[in-house]
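Lay summary. Proteins are chains of building blocks that fold into shapes, and those shapes determine what they do. In this project we predict the shape from the chain. Here is one chain we studied, written as its sequence of building blocks.
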Amino acid sequence: MNNQNQPQKVGQRHQLWTSRAVALFFTLFLLSESTIANVKGYGLEIAQQTVSAPSVPLSADKQQRYQDAVKLFEEAQELQKKGTKEGYQQAIEKYQQALKIVQELGLRQKEVEILVYIGVAYNSISEKETALNYLQQALDKTQGLKPLYKASILGYIILIYSDMGRLDDAINSFKQAELIFLQQTKIEPDELGLLASFYKSIATVYNRKGEPEKAFSYLDKALKIYRDTLKSLDGEASVLEDIGFIHFLRGETSKAFEKYNQALAIFQKISNLPAQSQILSHIASLHRKMGEYQQAIKHLYKAQKLLERVEGTLSQQGFIVSNIADVYAISGDYKAAIPYYQQAVNLYYKSGDTNLTLFAYVNISNMYKFSGEYQKALEYLNKGSSLSVKNKDGQALILQQNASIYILQSDYQNALEEYNKALDIQRSIPRPTSEADTLKQIGLLYKSLGDYQSSINHYTKALDIYKKIGNKPQQAIVHGLIASVYDASKNSDEALKSYEQALLLLNKEDYQSEILTLRNMVRTYNSLKNYPKALETAQRALSLSKGKGKNEEFKSLNILAEVYDSNGNYQKALETYQTILPYFRQAGLRFDEADILNQIGRTYTLSNQYQLAINTYNEELKLRRVFKNGTDEADVLYSIAKNQRQLKNLETALTNIDSAIKIVENIRTNVQNPDLRTSYFATVQNYYKFKINLLMELHKKDPSKGYNAIAIETSEASRARGLVELLTEARANIRKGANPELLAQEKRLQDLINAKEKIRLEIINSEKIKNPVLKANADKLQTEIDELLNQQKQLETKIRQSNPKYANLKYPQPLKLAQIQQQLDKDSLLLQYSLGEERSFLWVVSPTSLDTYELPKKSEIDKASINLFCLISQNSSKPPSATGKENPCQDTKNIKTRQIDLAAEELSKLVLAPVKDKLGKKRLVVVTDGALQYIPFAALADLTAQSTSQRGKEKKNQLDNKPKDNRGGGLIPEIDNLPPATNSNYQPLFINHEIVNLPSASTIAI
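And here is the predicted shape, written in a compact code that computers can read:
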């Protein structure tokens, strides 16, 4: 076939299917990472080639059959020229018919060649597993053929593995191919071209693995072959392009520009239009990274015009217009980006590339998502979903995207379910890197819900995957994510250790990850009040950001401003924030704009400029409402309320905190897993504490309006909801009527947990624990049990959902004051505590009255409570609130007195002194808070103690009928096991009072 008078085709570099060149055609496909998304279009080159004669003599009849095969092959090539999915599918049918003929004729070499073409065609329409299947068939039939046949097939397999993210498989295939070359006594020039293409390909793989030095090493070898031996301008330029791309990834913009311009000059010299287009696209990416958006669009338009002159470049044109859309998206102009993404959809669809079509739909969905139009976003995900029927990777991607939208809508339960579906798919393929990515997203979700241990568990699973596949950059990222969980749980020391691990794993070229890690470390140092170290780290991040684009630089400036803020240098912080804000606004980066406004508002608050803070927070609130993220909106309302309180606008503050609480209540009810509901609710307790303080302030201002009653009802709402729900579900017996298969699965899980726990206990409770192997087994069993318990929690959620009873379950609301009073008799008093950072409160409720008292702040009461706890437990355990290895019971600074009677009296004076004359001998129903929950309330000193003689006569009877602490849990020893008192005047409360401990007053009614 003569191609001289045809329009230029993509990468027209070699003749395929003629003599030795048949073994070299894969050179066309071994491209850099920057072009890997476009390799499907290169299958068209195969359609331009002539067919060589059979390698063995044929009879007349067989010769005719062979000519039939040739005709079918040529028809397939013509069909491939369309560059559409339909064209490739029709071509595959023709190839299959030709394959059958050459198999009948026993022409194994031709069979291998056609199998390869079929694999190429399947890859062109994104059916990579099928492509690999055909290529493997071809590989298996190369025995007895020239060794470089096998090498060439391995070359294309390397490319597909790389495209699929199976980097270790790609490296193994390269090693097989390289061995074939090393075993050759002489390598011909065109064979050297194939070797150079292998070097380019493996450089791509090593770069993706985070080993750029190895990548440069292989690219240097390829450049030497193309430039010095083959004198191939085309090959030389392609290597320069790849080198430029790695410099781009390393943030070395000047070196990247230099290599790209060298490559562009060569491609212009040889009139390679597609290659010129691609280089212009790379240069546009550099401008985009530097925040030079107009320059980026200008270069992309040039690239698009060049491709329009080239036949069969639909996918590549789609890639260019998608890049134009990316520029608009990054600059925040989502509306302008959508038409370009739609153009990309049309081009990809015409080319037959369903994968890229799906990605384009996801991009459109993201534009609507970022604009807060979540329904529209879901509609485009549904369109993408229709293309993923045979594409499990695509199905998992759609599920992940659905989950991200649910999170923005604060619908955490549905998000978790979508992520778990994605995990199931990714594990079934299997696709370890995608699985790890989903695990990271689940870890972030659990962190948002306050379930820090589950968050770390999921991050650790992702880390294990990255360790297994040897991906150090991702390991570093996960260590940073784990550190962020430690930060959130106030474990700053562990956070810093994890950040340091992340830095050790990073390559010096990965400046973006290093800058991000340093920024996060700054926040940790701030929380530790280590401002010199925070400032040093922030300046280091800023220095690294210089020359890496305005976006990086301004984000590092933002971190520096946070240091000024934390250190009390509010004016300097505000000046820095005000420098950053216009850039984010001009660039259209609205999420960043909202974050900066939040920080400015915080700084105004800290510097006592409350009205300016409110004005700034109101600007932020408008943006948060556009994003429709309930969690962030509630947080802004809370901040506004705090500033309004400072300005004595108490009623307005109350309205705003009520709005915030309403939002978080709605979020909580959407989470069906009770453990997650509880952990999430714990993250928003500060809203309720603030409202209680506000109400009590209003009560002090005007006692006639009943604000104190609303305050105790708020206290009930903050602690009762989860308990009421759990008790209601227990009574409803949600397992009755649930899916039998789920119940059977639950039983199997429980049996498995019991069996593993039995074996583990046998090891740890015997001499076996001294055996290192058995100890390791016990540790492994504990890990497995933890995983099974996590599965059990997820299964319980499914059981709830499968039961119609659960869907219709009506939860009682926390009790109002009047309802609480109805539950009390005349001989009972309710003592309900709420401990706050500024002050604490006690409500004393009888059937007919409500009295309120202000108590010392939480820190004082907690310290006295922990002191008493340590004495009661005889330092054998530590308070449940203690984190890490520290035990306050063993720290002499925390123990004010070593005498239990004095400790009990000290705590009683803090929490009972104002009401001692109201107690009489009544039954006390006690609802505690903070560290008060750790001690048996009955052990507190009775501040209205009777005489010693009277007390002695009654003590025995009281002890014989001693009421028990009703909280359970086994944390607190029995009261008759208390260490002896030294003060003869010490009289515990239980002598004169029956004590009923409750987690919430509302539980009385359940």
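What the prediction tells us: The longest strand covers residues 828-834.
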